[in-house]
Amino acid sequence: MYEKRMTIGAMDCDALGHMNMSRYFAACNAAGFEMQNSIGWPAGATRDGRRLSFAVVHLESDFLAEVLEGQVITVSVGVAQFGRSSATFVYTITAEDGTPVFTARWKSVLMDLDTRKSAPIPEDLKQALPLIPDRLS
């Protein structure tokens, strides 16, 4: 799994005093893009003459515990399953003590950014992405 640590700031929190739901998704999105960068597939970059990137088409999530300002969290991401042009990304956000606070499963389609249509996932991209068991099922 790819992991990204971050500290929750005041701007991440809402009027209820905890991390706003939109920030959970933003943290997962940032970790996913960083993972793509780390394996040499930056989102939107031209590779082999094509600009490819994953786009979310379905999302399931569970909020398990509050996250407050000042807490350090870790966002973990990996791929649980591949289809011809889709991948199921699994995200877990944990508190500093390892307690899960959020889980999500995002089905994404690889999109050709020039044609704006789905594209088959190249084998070298599949090999580069961290394949993990889907423990959220």
Radius of gyration from CA coordinates: 16 Å
CATH topology: Thiol Ester Dehydrase, Chain A
Fraction in beta strands: 35-45%
Q: For the terminal residues, how far apart are their CA atoms?
A: 17 Å
CATH classification class: Alpha Beta
> Based on CA inertia axes, which overall geometry fits?
elongated
Mean pLDDT: 93
Looking at this structure, what is the CATH superfamily?
Hotdog Thioesterase
Major sheet: size, sense and barrel closure?
7 strands, antiparallel
Number of H- or I-type helical stretches: 2
Q: Supply the helix-strand structural class.
A: alpha+beta
Give the count of structural domains. Answer: 1
Total strand segments: 7
Helical fraction equals 10-25%
User: pLDDT under 50 segments (min length 5)?
Assistant: none
The appropriate CATH architecture is Roll
The H/E string reads EHEEEEEEH
Structural account:
This protein is an alpha+beta fold. It has helices at 21-38, 123-128; strands at residues 2-7, 46-47, 50-63, 72-82, 86-95, 100-112, 117-118. It has a single domain (2-124), classed as Roll (Thiol Ester Dehydrase, Chain A). It contains two helices and seven strands; from the N terminus they run E-H-E-E-E-E-E-E-H. Strands 1, 2, 3, 4, 5, 6 and 7 form a seven-stranded antiparallel beta sheet that branches. The radius of gyration is 16 Å and the shape is elongated. The mean pLDDT is 93.
